Amino acid sequence: MNTTTTAHDMHADEMHVENVLIKNANSILTGMHGAQARHQASDIRISAGVITEIGDDLEALPHERVINARDCVVYPAWVNTHHHLFQSLLKGEPWGLNQSLTPWLAATPYRFRGAFDADNFRLAARIGLIELLRSGCATVADHHYLYWPDMPFDGAEILFDEAQRLGMRFVLCRGGATQTRGLEAELPQALRAEKFDAYMADMQRLVKHYHQDSAHAYQRVVMAPTTALHSTSPAELKESAKIARELGIRMHTHLSETVDYLDCAQAKFGMTPVQFCAEHDWVGEDVWMAHLVKLLPEEIQLLGQTRTGIAHCPQSNGRLGSGIADIVALERAGVQISIGVDGAASNEAADMQSETHAAWLLQRARKGMLATPQYAGGQFEGGADAASIEDVIRWGTAGGAGILGLDDLGQIEVGKVADIAIYALDDPRYFGLHDMAIGPVACAGRAHLKALLVGGRVVVEDDQIPNVDLKALAFEAQQAVKTLQQRVLVA
To answer: What is the pTM of this model?
Structure first.
C-alpha cells in the first residue's frame, strides 16, 4: 500500500515558501563524500524551497530575500534518526544516572512511563524538538514506544502536531511491545503489552492518516517494535516486516546495544542477534537499527551485504557505558550510517552538534584504543584517521536522509531541497580557528544559529524560534518534573 500526498495532506509550510539568496558564506559543507564535501562558492540561491544555483557574486532577484552569511559556515540541516522525545523531562534522573542499560531502563524510563499525561508528554516533545531545532536539525525520527491498552492520549497526534508547529520534518517510528520481559514485571497491569492485532491496526491507521511518500516528506511513519529480541514473538516480528513492506514503510528497532543482546539471542534462538533479524526479514535497505555496539565480524558482514542501516548514538552509549559502535568497520562493509541523539534520559546533551562532536572524537578514540604499538622508528599507530569532520557531517545529514528514504534532503547541491543551517561562529570557542568550516562539529557546544531553513522557509532566525518563550518553557519544565516525581512516588 502506497499513500499519495494530496493538497490536504501537505505540510502547510510547503505552501508559504520564500525565495532566498544566501550570500557571502565563509564555507559551505555539502554533506557529500571526498572532494565534493566542500563547495568552493559562497552563495546559494533557493527558489520554491529548492536549491537552484550555487556560485559566487550571485545577484539578488526581485522578491528574493537575502541572508548575509558573511563570517558564517553553512551545513545541510541535521537529520536525527533515533530519539525518544518523551524522555526530555527525564534528564539526569538520579535513580538511573549511574546505571548501565537494563537497570537504567527499570529505574528511569519504565518507572516514569505511566506518569505521563497528554500535557507533560506534549511539553517533553516540545522541549526535545526545540533543543534539536536550535542545533540546526530539521528532521527528527522519534522511536515512540509509550503504548499500552486504553492509553488516555494519542502520542502520535501530539508528536506530529508539535513538529508541524515548529516547521520540522517528523518521522514517527511507532514502537510498542506485544510481550514483556522481566524488568517490566512490576509495571501496573494498565501499562502492559498490546495485542499484536491492535498494534498492526494502529499502524494501518497511522499510515493512512500521516504517511507521505514524497522524498522530501514532512511526515513519515515507520514500523518500530521496541526491540527485535524482546518485544514481540519471532512469528510476530516476521509478520510485522511483511506488513511494513505491504504498507510501503520502513522499519526500525533497537539491536545489540550491549553484550546482553548477544547472550540473549544465543540462549533463546541459538544464533546471533543479526542472524535472528535476518531469519525474520528484518534486514535490508529499508531497515535501520539503533546502536549496534556489540557485533561479531560475521554480523557486520551480513549487515553490510544487506545494506541495513545504523543510527549511531555515541553519547547515550557512553553515558550508559555500553561501548562504542565500530562505524569505520560498518561503513567499510556497506552499512548505511546515520546519527541519532537517543532519549535525553540517557543523553542530557540531546542535540546534533553535541552528538556529531562525540561521534568524531569517539571513533578516533576507539581505533586508537585498539591500535597495536609500533616502537620501530618511534612510531605509534593511532586512530586520528578513523573519522573526519566531513565524514561525521555526511553521516548526520545525507546518511540520515538516505536511511529515512528522504533522498531530496541532506545535501547542499543544485536540485536538493533547501534544509540548510547557517552558523555564526561568534563565540570565543571558535576564535583562532584556522578553518572556520569545522567549527560547529570540532568545537562542541551549540553555535549561534543565524538561520535554519526547512524546505526554504526560515524557521529559526538569530537563535530565535517564532512564538517560543524559552523562559516560560523552562518554568513549565520545572513544574512538570515535580509533577512526574510526585506521581511516581504515589504509585
So the answer is: 0.95
